[in-house]
Amino acid sequence: FDSGDWTGQLLAFPISTTGTIGAQAWDAASLIPSIANNRVIITHDGSDGQPFRWASLSVAQQGLLGSPSILDYLRGDQSNESNLGGTFRNRTSLLGDIVHSSPTYVGPPSLNYPNGLGTNITAANYSSFKTNNNGRQPMLYVGSNDGMMHGFNADTGVEVFAYTPNAVMNKLAELSDVNYNHKYYVDESPVIVDAFFGTPAAWHSVLVSGLRSGGQGIFALDDTDPTDFTSEATAKDKVLWEFTDNDDS
């Protein structure tokens, strides 16, 4: 991260069989789609997953953000930044600072759950799940203090989708302030495990993460198949839940 303008980088370098590090393969910060409307960004409205679009937010969330133009700014629209004559904070990168969150790689399922665990249906065995997902696109997940958990194509570095937790909605608008003072948002490292659940019950790969210094909240996404995140219409259904300490009462 760069504390001068609170931007972040996620870099990939190849490593040879002899342990030598090669030239930089990609910088994810430079590969985030520059057209805000082309990004797949989802959130949670307190009940369900939703596209991170003004019309899809709850009335309460709209009140916290303040205006559609702030939401567009958060999605990556730079047309209202101050160096272009607007009133919003300038950004040299659309990827915010990554401080405490470590990137987590997800390739094919690789755990050793025994067949028959939770089911006597052969098609629902863990070995079948591993076979069916052996060729899925590898992903990298990391939380950032731009208010999002980002999912990147691990081969190319291109952002596949991002998740903005409802738990940070109350302070997202501050990111657009020209006098912005740094705050933490999605500051935790994601954990990905395989779990057997649903109706009908089946195996899934599940990402769970919190906010760490960004607040008291935890969320889960079904990241079994990265192609489910090619559009917000399908990606929103992969938000499993989000809780804060308010849900403990």
Task: Write structural notes for this entry.
The chain has 249 residues and is an alpha+beta fold. The longest helix is centred in the N-terminal third of the chain and has 8 residues, at 68-75. The chain contains 4 helices and 12 strands. The strands form 3 sheets. The protein has a 6-stranded mixed β-sheet. The chain has a 4-stranded antiparallel β-sheet with strand order 9-10-11-12, with no helix packed on it. Strands 1-2 form a two-stranded antiparallel ribbon. Strand 10 (202-210) and strand 11 form a beta hairpin. The protein has helices at residues 59-65, 68-75, 126-132, 232-235, and strands spanning 11-12, 26-27, 41-44, 49-51, 104-106, 139-144, 148-153, 159-164, 191-197, 202-210, 217-222, 239-244. The model has no long low-confidence stretch (mean pLDDT 94). Helices cover 10% and strands 24% of the residues. It is globular, with a radius of gyration of 19 Å.
